[in-house]
Amino acid sequence: MRADNSATPPSSIAVAPPVDTSRAAPAPIVATAPATAGAADGPGSRPAPGPSTGRSGTVLAGLGVVAFSLTFPATAWGLESFGPWSLVALRSVLAALIAGSVLLAARVPPPERRHWAGLAVVGGGVVVGFPLLTTLALQTSTTSHAAVVVGLLPLTTAVLGSWRTGERPSRTFWIAALAGAAVVITFTVQQSGGALASGDLYLFGALLVCAAGYTEGGRLARSMPGWHVIGWALVLCLPLAVAGSLVALPLEPVRLTTHGVLGLVWVAAGSTFLGLYVWYRGMAAIGVARASQLQLAQPLLTLVWSFLLLGEEMSAAAPVAAVAVLVCIAATQRAGRGAAGESRRVRS
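Above: the chain sequence. Below: its structure as tokens.
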């Protein structure tokens, strides 16, 4: 008491207790702010997005899906000028140069050491593995067929994302996701006469590596900006891409055409850099599982682009399958919003 009195002016001694009491009251409110801000750092601890965050995250992820839906038609164009290995290598080189220039101009420091393993998974999945396997598949598959097969990607990503990030979607979500996958499998079997083609094997391999890259990228985007994730993943793959270009270009024919150059530019700048930038931002906002189901719309969009840009004929089953998965999208997004709202009520 004597120490307190010596540290307090005599005129304020009589009101000291009320002042201390009023200061103690808001302490719990102040203490909750750091916990909320840091919740995104740990798997499964990210707070449920609010309505505005959820809407903006859905829009961003949706823009990524639109960019991805043009990938197969653009790849088909690119194959008019380059061989498959050359196209993938050049695509990665150009995208890495764009990303590196942006990172350098923004003076972005290198990621922490603990993030490099995750960035390697992103690079191996979405920068190298998925582009290479889908490009090889498109040598024997039409873009419309490949697009619907890749409709399995949302379920694959949701499963890996749930395991890797600790997200727990509702039962309704999983029922709708499984229904969408069942439609895709039925379409694939019907189109192939009950047997898998060599292109389908490439596509199923692409599903696995891409889902791993999406999941890890979505997890990293919780603690670093989405464009940093894809930017550093591209830079990490640059030495491999340059080496691949030096080996592939002399071995594969190059016949430059307008379509070929436009296709290369889009898959490098549009699909690989810009598309993944908005995609990872969207995933960080609304969660890996919920964002992944937006890609059920990708087959329908790709069918439209293939018809308009490539003049491909669509089988009667293709648009039916694509529309069916759109119904599943609506169900998964509604289930995701319901789960987020319930999470907010529990937290409040």
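The CA atoms of residues 260 and 302 lie 18 Å apart.
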